[in-house]
Amino acid sequence: MEITLRLLPKPEAYHTVLAAYPSLEAAGEAVSLIIRKGLLPGAMEIMDRLSIEAAEKAVRAGYPLVEGLLIVELEGPKEEVAEEALVLERVLRESGALELRVARDEAERQAIWKGRKAAFSAVGRLSPDYLVQDGVVPRSKLGEALREIQRLSREYGLRVANVFHAGDGNLHPLVLYDGKRPGELERAEALAGEILKLCVRLGGSLTGEHGIGVEKKGYMPEMFAPEDLEAMERVKKALDPKGLANRGKVLPEVAHAG
Amino acid sequence: MRVSARTLAEVVEAVRAYPRLRPKGGGTKPALSTPREGEASLELMGLSGILEYHPEEFVLTAFAGTPIAEVEEALRAHGQYLPFHPPLKGRGATLGGTVAAGLSGPLRHRYGGLRDFLLGVRFVDGEGRVVRGGGKVVKNAAGFPFHRLMVGSLGAFGVMVELSFKVFPRPRTTRTLRVRRENLEEALAELERLRLLPLDLLALDLVPPATLELRLGGFERSVEARLKRLQDLLGDGEVLAEDEAHWEAVRDLGFLEGSPIWVKVPAKPHLIPRLEALPLGPRRYLDGGEVLYAGTTEEGLKALRETGLPHLVLRGAETPLFPEPQGAFFAGVKKALDPKGRFPLG
């Protein structure tokens, strides 16, 4: 009926940097270095080679074709951003980046973001169909998660493009497939499911920001114990006794048994 | 009647053994933790200790009875803090009591309050069942967020056993500017102006009738430059010598000392003139006027109740929550998690 939001003034200044790395691990390690320095960037985004290629095909963002691309954005009062930028630059120089680009104005900032923002839809240039996943791992497990995703990708014979919010361990693997080939959708779904289970196994979550829904509810028992799901079920029943509100979108069927 | 629990199993046992229970942590908010007629006091100070803390993950998990002071000491060793600034730390407040009361301190102005930093909970519901909600990662949208339900619940839905919080790097340097205006009206106009500027203040408090306190944090050089900019903007102001000690006293609600009744009122700048017309005692508006902590007497509390404005009494009243919880949502959740009315607000 009514939603109340807390609004904030727009940040006074931004500092946006693009750093290119020879491997995804190196990009991930750079994120850890930034965090260890006590910085709290507004955004830290990583793209892998496949998503860089897709973004280049779609919007020609001018990204270097490397294995791992990191975008870091600082925001805040101009004096604070200037100090943080000095620390960030030092960290990135020591992080083994092949190339660093600092946005000097708003147009250059937009240019850095252009490819990242287009990445999801751009993957449509590489494959007729794809599944977008959303899972979370503890930040220190990012490297392990990405290695395991690459292994699963080989095992299932399907390409996986990775775009993620590295600052909070939120992965967005895109599973590429061709729905016209018999069995490929099912294989893609199974692979996406393996990735979700991996996230939970590493101490993370089935979803960082997009919620559960019909595709993921079956994996809820991976993350929650039967008692947790039964409690959710009881609350749902108490608040929505006729089951009218978006039924069957969050809680798995197995919980109903309890 | 008193029963104490030091482990999850002991909490479960206590919940099954007593028909009416009221959890108690450090006892810093007696209006919430003092057992009523027929209730057993479930003492949880022994359910204490940090369970998991990986500074690089920005996540800390601890037993609910852990004192805030212990948590902050562990965080400080790694240059981190709880940005929602839990009040009453110096008086022995615990994580669980802070969550149950839903309290945040002056520094909530910068990054948000308790609700934004609580990531997960493990609790024992009214039937003695152990339930987990949320998780231990900084971003998570899976399942019903039971942890959010615990914020300000006054213990109505269950006994919290474990809590996970998001933490942040601590500002390297802090400075505080105090400015005085002629009267409340001018101070409110200044407050409104400051709220709309992208200053990233750590705290913005109004001390009635007409004093504003602004706290800045960050790199030393930047803080000095921003302080100068603020002074130019506001036309001077006094820089506090004892920055840290001052704010520690504020978060411990030292200014309420001596008042028989302590009350927290969710405010808004436009409500401040109305609140200022009431016979309240020492007080301070936090977070740019979003929340009021006031000391008062029976007379002041009565006047506040007559305005109809919602509030929470921390000390000095039999009925802490006004208005009492109502509506289908509370009743439904209560029925699902505490059907026998074992916990407060039954």
The helix content of chain B is: 25-40%
Largest sheet: number of strands, sense, barrel closure of chain B? 5 strands, antiparallel
Question: Mean pLDDT of chain A, as a whole number?
Answer: 94
> Main interface pair?
A-B, 55 and 47 residues
- Class by SSE composition of chain B: alpha+beta
Radius of gyration of chain B: 20 Å
**Beta-strand content of chain B:** 25-35%
How would you explain this protein's 3D organization?
The complex is a heterodimer of chains A (258) and B (346). By secondary structure, chain A is an alpha+beta fold. Helices cover 46% and strands 19% of the residues of chain A. The radius of gyration of chain A is 20 Å and the shape is globular. The mean pLDDT of chain A is 94. Helix content of chain B is 30%, strand content 26%. In chain B, the strands form 5 sheets. A 5-stranded antiparallel beta sheet of chain B has the order 4-5-9-7-8. Chain B is globular, with a radius of gyration of 20 Å. The chains are: A alpha+beta (258), B alpha+beta (346). At the A-B interface, helix 1, helix 3 and helix 9 of A face strand 8, strand 10, helix 9 and helix 13 of B.
Q: What keywords describe this structure?
A:
heterodimer, A: 258 residues, alpha+beta, eight-stranded antiparallel β-sheet, 10 helices, globular, B: 346 residues, five-stranded antiparallel β-sheet, 13 helices
Annotate the secondary structure layout.
The complex is a heterodimer of chains A (258) and B (346).
Chain A: E1 13-21, H1 24-36, E2 43-48, H2 49-59, E3 68-76, H3 78-94, E4 99-102, H4 106-122, E5 129-132, E6 135-136, H5 142-156, E7 160-165, E8 170-177, H6 184-201, H7 213-216, H8 220-223, H9 226-239, H10 253-257
Helix pairs in contact in A: 2-4, 5-6
Chain B: E1 2-4, H1 8-17, E2 21-24, H2 30-33, E3 40-43, E4 50-54, E5 59-63, H3 68-76, E6 80-81, H4 95-101, H5 108-111, H6 114-117, E7 118-124, E8 130-134, H7 146-150, E9 159-166, E10 168-169, E11 173-180, H8 184-195, E12 203-207, E13 211-218, H9 220-234, E14 238-239, H10 243-251, E15 261-266, H11 272-276, E16 283-286, E17 291-296, H12 298-307, E18 311-315, E19 321-322, H13 328-337
